[in-house]
Amino acid sequence: MSSQQSPDSRGMTIDAPVAEASATGRTVYTESLRRAPESVRSARRLVSSALRAWGLERLEDTAWIVVTELMSNAVVHARLSTVRVTVTRRDQCVVRIAVVDRSRRVPQSQAADLDDESGRGLAIVAALCSGRWGAVPLRRGKCVWAEVELA
């Protein structure tokens, strides 16, 4: 399926959400988003669309927290103006959420002090995903992913 494009508020073209088959035959929902706080909402909508199409609505609350954290990290730490969000059904009960950005800096979970206002997000993702998250270095950035699963 070819990429669909639509203008953003500045008249720039951004890819609209697309469902496409990957090389493995799995359906992947993907969208390029501006690297901006307001794009977190669009990432949650993409996740919801995929989960509803697959009949996995029960994962929505957990998946929203995960994509919110991954997108928030990209907004703060990435470079360039866009990021790519993908949602892939790995099997009957597992969905992978990934955010690709142009920063080569790989995130690391850290211990936050009680007074810290940030630094807990990846620990929350790890807890929600039973430790199934990671970051893959890419030639021009990285892919940070996490898997949510039906219990």
Automatic annotation (TrEMBL):
The keyword Chaperone does not apply. The keyword Kinase applies. One of its GO terms (molecular function) is ATP binding. It comes from Streptomyces albipurpureus. Residues 36-128 form the Histidine kinase/HSP90-like ATPase domain. It holds the Pfam family HATPase_c_2. PANTHER family: ANTI-SIGMA-F FACTOR RSBW (PTHR35526:SF3), ANTI-SIGMA-F FACTOR RSBW-RELATED (PTHR35526). Keywords: ATP-binding, Kinase, Nucleotide-binding, Serine/threonine-protein kinase, Transferase. This is ATP-binding protein.
